[in-house]
Design brief:
This protein is α/β, with parallel strands linked by helices. The chain has four domains: 1-178 and 329-342, ABC transporter transmembrane region fold, CATH 1.20.1560; 180-293; 355-438 and 520-530 and 545-603, Rossmann fold; 445-517, Rossmann fold, CATH 3.40.50. The chain is 61% helix and 9% strand. The protein contains 19 helices and ten strands. It has helices spanning 19-23, 26-32, 36-67, 79-124, 128-133, 136-178, 180-227, 229-234, 238-290, 296-337, 402-409, 432-436, 453-457, 466-475, 479-484, 502-516, 532-546, 581-585, 591-602, and strands at 361-368, 379-386, 391-395, 417-422, 425-426, 439-442, 520-524, 550-554, 566-571, 574-579. The strands form two sheets. It has a six-stranded mixed β-sheet with strand order 6-7-8-3-9-10. Helix 6 (136-178) packs antiparallel against helix 10 (296-337).
Amino acid sequence: MARPRDTNKEDLPKVKVTKESLREVLLIFKYLKPYQGRFIAGLVFIGLSSGTVMAFPYLLKRLIDSAHGDLKGPFAYSPGTTALLMVGVLAVQMIFSFLRIYLFTYVGENAVADMRQDVYRKLITMPMNFFGQHRVGELSSRITADASQIQDAITGMLAEFLRGILTLVIGICLIMFISPKMTGLMLSVVPVIVVIALVFGRSIRSMSRKAQDQLAESNTVVQETLQGISNVKAFSNEWYEVARFKKNISGVVDMAVRNSLYRGLFVSFMLFSVFGAIVLVVWYGAGLMQAGKLSFGDLTAFVVYTAFVGGTMAGFAEIYSQLQKTLGATQRVRELLAEDEEDITVAQSTIDPANKLRGNVTFRNVRFSYPSRRDITVIKDLSLEAFTGQQIAIVGPSGAGKSTIVSLLLRFFDPESGDVLFDGRQASSIPLSQLRGQIALVPQDILLFGGTIFENIAYGRPDATMEEVVAAASKANAHEFISAFPEGYQTVVGERGMKLSGGQRQRIAIARAILKNPVILLLDEATSSLDSESEAQVQDALQYLMKGRTSFVIAHRLSTIRSADQIIVLEDGRVRESGTHTELINIEDGLYRNLNKLQMTES
């Protein structure tokens, strides 16, 4: 099955070769600079390799002429000596080629590894708004497909281009030296072949692009169907999906067959043209031989050099196509590296005593709209206050702005107006890494990484020991079920933790938060999707986690937050009511009271 277009290096978008786009290539040289010694050595070996390759036809000419007795003078070696010289040239050329490939591969791999690190570092330091505007596949392709294309340009395309230029220049000079008349005849045919090849090539590329689009569309059908297989089977729509895929794949076949007609004509024409040109040149050369103006060795060398020149010229079309892809790749990488990032510390660091939080949090007249939806105000003139160690519950109907408060506390976004204060300090005055390092989030949908249970718990503090991880798991009521696994804490949880139940994932997330030992705790509907048994275990772990910490609890089940120090009831981005459970339940026609009645009725 083909990969999606945005991650397929073979189908990367191309850009026109212009002065502006060529400047993008300067990005590559920035990453080549640390390895410039090896890079320059690689360039030298390209020249030496090309020179020894081009010397071979000349030695072949001398070998043939010596066998016919056409060589005279002090350098008229015997056929055996000339053959040994040719073997020596081949051996030297082999060494040069090996060193060229090794050096360019070394430079390319290391330069692109540095680039990938910079791109990845840039990605993980981008603000949340950036990820809301870009697809994950699109972003990951900057590290994979685009970086690989740039790597190919360094290790292959650049070397082939330089070698092609040298081969072309040396080859044309040598065939001019052998026979100016035959060279003129050969070069007169080339422009016609090139023009026709360009016309055919443009049509073929256009059709290939359409075929790739069609294939990508059929691939999308497969992805959508497999991702939503439960819906497909629930609605008994297997027949519909089969028919949809058949329609798309039939379009791929039709496009491929039509493309093959053009490719067949193109290949047939090129074979006829190339071999026809060779026949024409050899026929003309044979006439010069009969006239005594050309030796058999000269004719052989001319034909070989002509093949080199022709092959090089044909290869430039592919190099040009690769150049377009490389320009597009460097352009996209440069655009990403030029984006504004968050001011965070990538290296692991301890909390500076000057930034140590006590746990007091204040929202003062906060107004906020998501950058992608400026026309919709999510938070409207919101004010609230939480003191050290308090449990603040936030409730309200869907869309009231509950989860947005969590995002503002973590500074995923900053308010349009108003203030978010920590211990009386503006949130923006506290370094992001220092702020987030003292806040822990336990969301509703737990994302576990595909490693082991130990690694997932230790994500809260990567330098934690096994004893500390086990202690955190015990406090989160997770040690018992973890120990029951044959591999214990080394059990691999699978992609997104799918090998574990919802309650197990939730308790691992709580253990992760306990290990982090945060000053402020954020619980975003942490038990809403659990069954009663799992909820009881998770709730018990959460009670331990919340002790002595300022906690913001977004709750769907109101029964879980009755003991909260303060309950904030949101509606349409505003604080509709606030107080303890007892105070709010006694408000006639109050929103909290109505929500509580509704849940009691449903239960």
